[in-house]
Structures are given as structure tokens and as C-alpha cells.
Design goal:
heterodimer; A: alpha/beta; Helicase, Ruva Protein, domain 3; 2 domains; 45% helix; B: alpha/beta; aromatic hydrocarbons catabolism (chain A); metal-binding (chain A); EC 4.1.3.39 (chain A); PYR_CT (chain A)
Chain lengths: 339, 291
């Protein structure tokens, strides 16, 4: 494959963060240890560990963690040697206090995530992370929802705060390959820092999108084993690595070990096989934040309505990531209209 | 008898305050103080016949008789300095910055107990919108944990809020605990860029020790009416939802549209709460002065 970058690809496994949504934030310390051990053994570059909504996300709004995320991060740090432990921080949910705490117990990288148009709330956290000696990357969520020029403008802000890479984060799994291409290309032409790509597989194009992103020059790539991530999950890591090998790219991660880990450790963690269900398809189609899925299903049950109607309505009202409270509100409203 | 007041800070908040204070039966606004003679706020104040100064608080130091109550809508750093000066001048300070030199106040929850002091702080917009609800629930059901989610339009989030968004979450959490009465609090803020801009919405989750759906609902509704007295666009978006020991309240805040557009209920509720607090302080001072 011809790439528009000569920097090495750095993979981040997100199943212990994005996958937290799937298990309703009930990861145990043993599970985290087993997954990190396997990833370390396979040579994974970065492993993200945190509540699904990032540091400080254990709330009634998003679901409480069974085990304090700091304990999980600490366990992950203990089990890893060469793999680096990463965390996610969404300003407005987590603060620099949690960031400092995570740094103290050994987290080495933070992705500071904002809605694609709101990058300027991240300045405080990106610069603090750099001060703490962490790698600090920007994470522009719901990247499908803004015009390309806006995305570029916001990415440049994050670059100016000290971010060492900016991600195109397809939180809704709504981007199609040509849209990924134009976004990564535009960033490559405007930024001096690395570009990342984070996919959701809601429309079954996560691997395809990731390949396009890599071709255009993205070098920070996210995946989740067995698609253990919100909605239909992310780019399936143990699929991506052999595909890259077929294309002549060795990223230095052992694909057999990843497959074994997915089969033997991740599959038993999954409440059910990660298929692309109707809720996920609708989210990808309507551009809805992937972690809304299970909340919408529960609200649908509670109020006796189709969860797809809730998701589509949330798309219409342009709900952004983090607005889980709107799900109950919209569900109650739809139920009233129906009655 | 009206009590005289001044506003320091001629930005958006200060200007909106000016329009609200104009309608007050208890406060006579006399002065607007800024540092930028070209600021829209100072120009508008001048047009309306108020004394204006563009040399900051020095204007008040030189003319101390212009006000007994001073609304400070500058910045946290600046208010730290102002607080000292205002104290020496014997003025009552109503602080709309995050400086929090004085106690946190929600006018419908704990103003009376702080009225003998000389400096009160208005917490945050999210705090003003949610703490009355938490207090209402706490008074009948004892809140062990309260969590609030404030969602505001991106248009209404100023550069100060954006540069230090942690200050919002941390200060609001403290307000939830210290003023709302929750044993433990948590605050989240979300910016939504949708066009046309969304109204401010607040969701309040409380876990309570003594669940009583009827009492809680009545207490919430009575409190909504009290807040409506100074924020007419404050309303319940849904009936409260109950689930085990948990109650969820959905609030929507539409602003009065004085200087801010109506969607910016988050900014409006700050200035409205400050005016409400100021009026009660004025009544108290008037009583003291007439004795």
C-alpha cells in the first residue's frame, strides 16, 4: 500500500475503554489484567483503559463503574511493560484532577476528546498533560457532523494547544470511505502533527475506512478486539492487523496472538456476539453517538417504544456525545405522543 | 427607599444585569464601570444616563457614595482584588465571577443566612439552575448523591468558560454539596452546537434516603414556582421520573431576552439570580438604614 506518511503506524487497542459501554462499565480487575497481559504479549503499542465516557465518567448519566477506573488503570500498568497505557478525557466530564491521578499511577498518554466544533475546551487539559510529561492527543468526536473546513480549523486549535496528534473520531460510525479520505487529506495538508482515525463499525465499513485513513496518511489507528466497543464496535483489531500484513505492512503486532486473545479472553466477556444490530445500523445511518445504543434500548423497553425511533429523533435534534439524559427525555416525550 | 447599586464589568453579563436592574423596585442602578471606553456595555449605560467610568474600580473608590451594593461581573482574578477594596469601602459585593471570596448563594435556598455578610458568590449557571431542585428534594427526602448535567448552546459559552471548563464542574459540584445539601455531588457540562441554538437544559439525578414520590414531586413543583418569580422561563420539561431510590428532574431554562438571546438561559439565570439576591440584600439594607 502506498501511504502519504512515512511515520510508523501506532495502534491503540480501545476495548478496555470503548468496550466499557458494552459491558455497562462492569469490567473487573481480573478481566483487565488478562486482556492487558495478552495485548502486551502480542506487542500492542497503546492500550486505553478508562470508563467508557473517559476519566470521571462513572455517573448516573452514563452508568457507574463496577471497579474504580483508577484501580483498573493501575492494574493495567502493572501488567504492561512495553505497551503504554492510555486514558481518555472528555472536558466537561473529567477534569485535570483525574488526569493527574491517572498520570501518577502510570498512564502515559491521554486523548482529550471534544465534540468536533468545541476544541477550545481542551486547551487546559492538553497543556496540563504535556506539563505532566504525557503524550497528549486531540480527539474530535462526531467528525461526520461538521464540514471539512470546520474540522481542520478545530484540529489546528488542538495543535496550537500542544496536541501531538489529532484524531478524526467517527463516533457515530457514519462516515463513508470517501468522506474519511477527504477529512484525513485535508488535515494532512494543514497540520504538522500526526493524524489519527477512530472508527465505529455501525455501517460495516470500519476496516475499509481505516485502510483509506492509513493510505491518506493517518498513523494513529484505533481498534477493538472482537469489536468490543460502543454500537457495533470499532475496527476489529485482529482483522485489521492481518489485512495490513496482506498489504505489506508489518506494524509489529502478532496477529495470531491477537486472534487467540479475541477468541479466548474477549469473546467470553462479551454479553452477546458483536453483530451489527438494527440499532447500530440506524445510528450509523442517522449519525448518532454510538454509546447511546444500550441506553436507547433500555429507554425503549421502559416506555414501550421502538429504540430506533428514539435514536432517529436524537439524530434530528442533533444530540452530541454525552447527552445521554436526552434519551430518557425523548423517550418519555415519544411515549406521551403515542399515548 | 431604593438602595443604590453599581455594576463593575461592562461585558455581556454586566450589560444584561443593567437591563434587569432597571426594572427593580428595590434597587436604583447609578453606575456602570468598565475598563474599555469603547465597550458596548459602557456606551449603552451612558446612553441611558448612568454614571460611567472606564478606569475600573477606581471610579467607585473616587465616588463611594454612588452605590451600597456592587455587582461584580469581571473575572475571578479581578474580583479577588475588588473584594478587598469593596470590603474596605463597606459595600456589599455580589460576585458573578468564579472567584468565590464569599459564600455560595442560591437566592431561593440560602440567601437569608448570608445576608449579614458583605460578599456573596453566585456559583455557576448550572448551579443556579439545579441547586434549587436538589435543595427541594433534599428538604423532603434527604439526598445522598446528586448529579447534574447542564447542556448549553455553544453560542452561549463564552471564552472564559471554555478556557477553564474544569472550574465549572468543580465549583458546581461544591455548590451541589454545600448549598443543595447533597452528601456528595457531581456536575457535567455539555456544549451543543446545533443551529438554531438550543435552550439551556439541565438534568438532575438524585439518590435519596427517604423516597416519597408525592412529597418530592410537590416540593419540586413548589420550588419551580419560586424560581419562576425571577426566571420566568424556568420550567419542568417532563414530570419527574422515579426509579427505586432515584429521582430524575428535567429542566429547561429560557432567558428573558434582555441583552442575551432567549436561548442563553444559562447566562440569564446567572444575572437574574444576582438581581434577585441583590434585591433581598437591598431590602435588608434599607431596613437597617431606616432603623
Amino acid at each position: 500500500m502506498k501511504r502519504n506518511s512515512n511515520k510508523p503506524i501506532k495502534l491503540t487497542e480501545v476495548c478496555l475503554r470503548d468496550g466499557s459501554h458494552v459491558v455497562r462499565h462492569q469490567f473487573t480487575e481480573e478481566q483487565v489484567r488478562a486482556v492487558v497481559r495478552g495485548l502486551e504479549d502480542a506487542g500492542m503499542h497503546y492500550i486505553e483503559v478508562a470508563h467508557g465516557d473517559g476519566l470521571g465518567g462513572s455517573t448516573l448519566q452514563y452508568g457507574r463503574s463496577l471497579v474504580d477506573e483508577m484501580k483498573l488503570i493501575e492494574a493495567a500498568v502493572e501488567e504492561s511493560k512495553n505497551s503504554k497505557i492510555a486514558v481518555l478525557l472528555i472536558p466537561g466530564i473529567g477534569t485535570v484532577h483525574e488526569l493527574k491521578q491517572a498520570r501518577e499511577i502510570g498512564a502515559q498518554l491521554v486523548r482529550v476528546a471534544t465534540h468536533v466544533t468545541e476544541a477550545n475546551v481542551s486547551a487546559q487539559h492538553i497543556s496540563m498533560a504535556r506539563e505532566l510529561g504525557m503524550e497528549a492527543l486531540g480527539f474530535l468526536m462526531m467528525a461526520h457532523s461538521a464540514p471539512v473546513e470546520k474540522l481542520v480549523e478545530q484540529a489546528k486549535l488542538m495543535e496550537s494547544y500542544g496536541a501531538e496528534a489529532v484524531y478524526v473520531t467517527d463516533s457515530a460510525g457514519a462516515l463513508l470511505p470517501n468522506q474519511v479520505r477527504e477529512r484525513i487529506k485535508a488535515l494532512r495538508q494543514s497540520l504538522d502533527i500526526e493524524i489519527g482515525f477512530h472508527a465505529h463499525n455501525n455501517l460495516s465499513v470500519a476496516v475499509a475506512n481505516t485502510l483509506v485513513a492509513i493510505e491518506e496518511g493517518a498513523t494513529r489507528i484505533d481498534g477493538s478486539l472482537r469489536c468490543l466497543g460502543a454500537g457495533a464496535g470499532n475496527t476489529q483489531t485482529e482483522v485489521l492487523v492481518p489485512v495490513l500484513q496482506r498489504m505489506g505492512m508489518d506494524v509489529g503486532v502478532d496477529s495470531y496472538k491477537l486472534m487467540d486473545l479475541a477468541e479466548e479472553v474477549i469473546a467470553p466477556i462479551l454479553p452477546k456476539a458483536q453483530e451489527i444490530g438494527r440499532g447500530s445500523i440506524v445510528m450509523g445511518y442517522a449519525g448518532v453517538y454510538s454509546s447511546f445504543l444500550l441506553h436507547a434500548e433500555r429507554a425503549g423497553q421502559r416506555f414501550g417504544i421502538d429504540s430506533r425511533d428514539i435514536l432517529v429523533e436524537l439524530g434530528k435534534r442533533k444530540a452530541v456525545g454525552g447527552q445521554e439524559d436526552m434519551i430518557l427525555d425523548v423517550a418519555a416525550e415519544l411515549a406521551k405522543q403515542k399515548a | 427607599m431604593k438602595v443604590k447599586a453599581a455594576i463593575i464589568g461592562s461585558g455581556n453579563i454586566g450589560t444584561d444585569l443593567m437591563y434587569k436592574l432597571e426594572r427593580s423596585p428595590y434597587i436604583e442602578l447609578t453606575t456602570m464601570i468598565g475598563i474599555d471606553p469603547e465597550s458596548d456595555g459602557l456606551k449603552r449605560a451612558k446612553e441611558r444616563g448612568y454614571a460611567t467610568f472606564d478606569n475600573g474600580i477606581q471610579g467607585l473608590v473616587d465616588n463611594p457614595d454612588l452605590a451600597d451594593i456592587v455587582f461584580d461581573a469581571t473575572s475571578a482574578k479581578t474580583h479577588v482584588r475588588h473584594a478587598k477594596i469593596l470590603k474596605e469601602l463597606g459595600k456589599f459585593a455580589i460576585d458573578l465571577t468564579p472567584a468565590a471570596r464569599g459564600p455560595f448563594v442560591s437566592p431561593v435556598v440560602n440567601l437569608e443566612e448570608n445576608i449579614e455578610g458583605d460578599n456573596i458568590n453566585m456559583i455557576t449557571c448550572g448551579g443556579q439552575a439545579t441547586i434549587p431542585m436538589i435543595s427541594a428534594i433534599n428538604s423532603v427526602a434527604d439526598v445522598s448523591y446528586a448529579e447534574i448535567v447542564a447542556t448549553i448552546s455553544s453560542e452561549s459559552a463564552g471564552p472564559g468558560t471554555r478556557a477553564n471548563i474544569d472550574e465549572f464542574t468543580i465549583t458546581t459540584r461544591r455548590g451541589i454539596e454545600e448549598v443543595g445539601g447533597a452528601d456528595k455531588g457531581k456536575a457535567l457540562i455539555i456544549l451543543n452546537p446545533a443551529e438554531p441554538p438550543i435552550l439551556m437544559r439541565d438534568t438532575i439525578y438524585c439518590e435519596v434516603k427517604n423516597m416519597d414520590e408525592q412529597k418530592i414531586t410537590e416540593s419540586i413543583k413548589a420550588m419551580v414556582e419560586r424560581v419562576k418569580e425571577y426566571v420566568p422561563g424556568y420550567r419542568l420539561k417532563q414530570e419527574p421520573l422515579f426509579d427505586g431510590n432515584r429521582v430524575t428532574v428535567f429542566i429547561e431554562v429560557e432567558g428573558a431576552g434582555d441583552y442575551f438571546p432567549p436561548y442563553a438561559g444559562n447566562l440569564d439565570i446567572m444575572t437574574a439570580a444576582a438581581v434577585k439576591a441583590g434585591e433581598n440584600v437591598a431590602k435588608h439594607l434599607a431596613k437597617r438604614l431606616s432603623m
